[in-house]
Every structure is written in structure tokens, then in C-alpha cells.
Amino acid sequence: MIAKTVIIIPAKGQSKRLPEKNKKLLDGFTLVEYAIKRSVESGLGDVIISSDDDEILALALRSVPNRVFPFKRNKEMSNPDLRLPEVLLDLFERIPQGKYDDFILTLPTSPLATYKDLQNAYYLFSIYSGRPVMSVTNARVNPNALGFIRENNFLPFCIDYGNDFNRPKWKPDFVIKGTKIDLYKSNGAVFVCGIERFKEERDFYINGMLAYEMSSERGIDIDTELDFLLAETLMRKIN
User: Which residues of 118-157 are buried (b: 16+ CB within 10 A; e: fewer)?
Assistant: First the structure.
């Protein structure tokens, strides 16, 4: 086990798009249990489950003694609209200072991630002198097809709208009409960072971070019912 490293599983009880998704059963186990399993099997450090839900916290108590620890969020940190960085910063203020140097974040919504993903991402973090590492998957979308709707008008990003400041603007070297580049998105499976660095940045998206690329299947991120149905299909394929 690598000293001074903690694995954090944030798992609130309620969620907007998919109610109680962290407690949903996938092939007989809750999404939280998959996160606990890969965290313990990684052997990288203590595991903390941060939650406002007693049922989720009970899973920590029933898992691996002296390795998995429940952490009850206070009332202020139970606001469903609160951003996750704020929850982590509160946690870091409440654990003994100096107990951990680094942390690995892994979300229950990535049930197909494995302990090897945590180990591989932490290895990158180690050999690149503590640069933050974020897991990503290929978004598989043509950026030239993206845009948004305003007053029933579709406004593609790839069009030059000149000096109209009410129109979307992307950097011209990012989206150029007639070109196609790969886009990647964070998937929540793994994030590795130094605790003091995170306290300074107060966010996950940090300049100079490294990408840990995962396949679309293993890096699935469950946020909706459709995502969950896809995860069930992939799980049956794996098993």
C-alpha cells in the first residue's frame, strides 16, 4: 500500500436526472459497491465514502474494516445543488491535517471501471511528479456539428458570426469548418491530485493535467436512465 494516499468515493443519496442512482442495483450490486470493490482491490490507500445517506454509509461499515470509512456530510454539504469540489474541500478541512498527501477520486457512476484504472492513473500521477490526472473517454462527436438553440434558431459553433457578441464563439483553431478533430470528455472514473494542489485550484479542471484515456465501454458514466440501460447491456456482455 502506498502511504499518505486516500481514495474518496462521493455518493450523495439523491440525484436529479436518475433518482437514487448511487443505490441502484446493477447485476446484483449497487453502484457504490462497485466503487468500493475497485478502490479496495487497488491497494492504494484508505477508502472514504462521503455521503449524506445513512444507507450508503452503512455499506462502508459492512465492507472492509479498517480500510473503508464512512464520512457523514453535514447539513450544508448535503445541498443537491452544491458542486463536488466544495464537498471535497470541506472533507479535507475535517480530516486530520497531514494524514494524507494525495487523493484518488472515483465516482460510483463508473461501475465498469476497475482497480487497474485506479492503479494506472496513479502511476501516471507518480511518474509525472504529481501532475493531476483525469480519466477521459472519446466523446465520438463531430465538433462541427455542435451548437445550441436560441429562440428556435440553431447556432453551430463552426460558423463565423463576426462581431455579433450574442452568438457562440469557439477558438478558430479548435473548430474549423470542414475539419474534424477528436474530442474527449471527463468520465468520473478516476481523478488523482495532491490535496494541497486541489485546495489551491478548488476545481478538477487544472492547467497541465494529464489524461488517462479509457475505452467508451469501460469509461461509461451513468447519469440518466438510458446510461443505466447501456451499462446493464455492457455488464451482461462482460459476464
Answer: bbbbbebbeeeeebbbbbbbeeeeebbebbeeeeeeebeb
